[in-house]
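Give me structure tokens for this 367-residue protein.
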Amino acid sequence: MNVELVCVGTELLLGSIVNTNAAYLSEKCAGLGLSCYFQTVVGDNGDRLARVLGTAMERSDIVIVCGGLGPTEDDLTKETAAKVCGKKMYLHEPSKKAIESFFAYKGMEPTDNNWKQAMLPEGAIVLHNPNGTAPGVIMEMKDVKVILLPGPPNELQPMFEESVAPYLASLTAQVICSQTVKICGVGESKAETMVMDLIDGQTNPTIATYAKTGEVHIRVTANAGDRKSAAKLLKPVVKELKARFGNHIYTTEEDVTLEKSVVDLALANNLTITCAESCTGGMLSARLINVPGISEVYKSGVVTYSNKAKRKLLGVKKSTLQKCCLTHTIKIIWMQKLSFLCRYLTKEKNKEDITKHYCLQKVLLKS
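Here you go.
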């Protein structure tokens, strides 16, 4: 099955906000085994939106529309989609009560235009929105499903996870299972070259590489009649990737970030970390301290920008600073620091003589 995304909002066309919804929905749909061939951004204009929806409904099995479900006059998504699908609008009493409860909880009074959000297409599946006042909508046509979601990410994402993803999964008898192999210290072009034979010969599972900031993710996706069978198909491919990339793989868990992997390794080996940063301005420390349990690992951090501060606080020799040219300084960016530390701990984790207070900057300057 294929899915098409339509993101509504003039602010997206003007560049006033970044279209994070498209990135989120694309990734989630890919994880469900849905192919996405088209994405469109359209402004708050009923005629243009109607044309975009008409085209999308002709060429796609599922159309997901996000944005334009608010209470204002330029929020036209629901009314336009209902018109294109040949549906009449009606007042959905449960949604009206949900809006009343939402405002009561906030200690506020709804305005008349808020009731517009309780007007829904007849026959639609209504998706509850506990984080806002705009309910989601699913309209099931003969050859296409049209799903309307609110624009704010803090409303769209929970609604997708709780209501839309299970609905999409129910549309096919096949079960989709995927696993992401996360790699540091290898660029995307080299990573792809290392697995090109697997990509060229892929059928089921499929393999796709994704470039991230300072990382490469390889997603392996399989489909089968049940989850156990799909997971079984993934296992030999992931094993082969581990053999090829070795210590460059820092996790195969979806929710584990590079910094979490670093902290977990440090905790497992009873290590502590002290950071001395210059041009990164504390970004390495900021990223590390977002990880739960970091207080057991992270002891201190120093940001030294001037050469005088580096000599006084860190004991860096004047001769070292003179040798450290601008190009080398720029090269030592915060993602490289995390990548280095992760691989360092992986390789050295069984050695007992690792310094417990570890100054990353000094090690990098010597490397």
